[in-house]
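Problem 12. The chain below contains 220 residues. Write out its predicted structure in token notation.
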Amino acid sequence: MCGKVISSDDSLCPECFEEVNFITKPYCKRCGVPLVSGGDETYCVTCLNKTSPLRLCRAAVKYDEFSKKLILDFKFLDHIENKKLLARWLYMAGQDIFKEGVDLLIPVPLYYTRLIKRKYNQSAILTAELAKLSGTEACYKSLKKVKHTLPQVECDGRRRKLNVKNAFDVLHCDKIKGKRIVLIDDVYTTGSTLKECAKALKKAGAKSVDALTVARVCKK
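Solution.
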């Protein structure tokens, strides 16, 4: 982040580490959104009133100006060296999920034209690193994005849902059927993309689908 020389290639200096806003308890037992107060069994208002195709969601840090730079550099500016640091955060944030049991890690896929333009899928890189840390199998070919969509940052809440509706399909359903799956992505904003992926996976026979992201947009 700041360019200071440090002893490890997968960490931050103490000053930069102090800038990280990790998501810690209390948070919603289901979706992982930070709460002002509550115990381990507390749910947010949304989860109390709405169902979701996602069983559990967890994120490591709050999406703010500091984490935004770290993630965008990784996502768009070829800072692949950030993968070890971000994957370690994912692993720590996902302990609730791993305790429930996980069979497969699946990255949120990119549409092929965007993958060509970007050169790599940041979610797939994170998935590969997390698979090493957790000893969990990763699957990169079963979930496919079949529809070109606008970047989600260009859409508001309602348009985000419509933008990704039916945008994902599952190949090799035999690989998915009966499995406990964790979707991996960089940022949880409204959850529209992750939920649409989860719908496709559950339709293909997945036993459960959780979501794990590096950062989460949190309302102030």
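Discussion. The longest strand covers residues 180-188. Students who got a different answer should revisit the alignment rule from Section 12.3.
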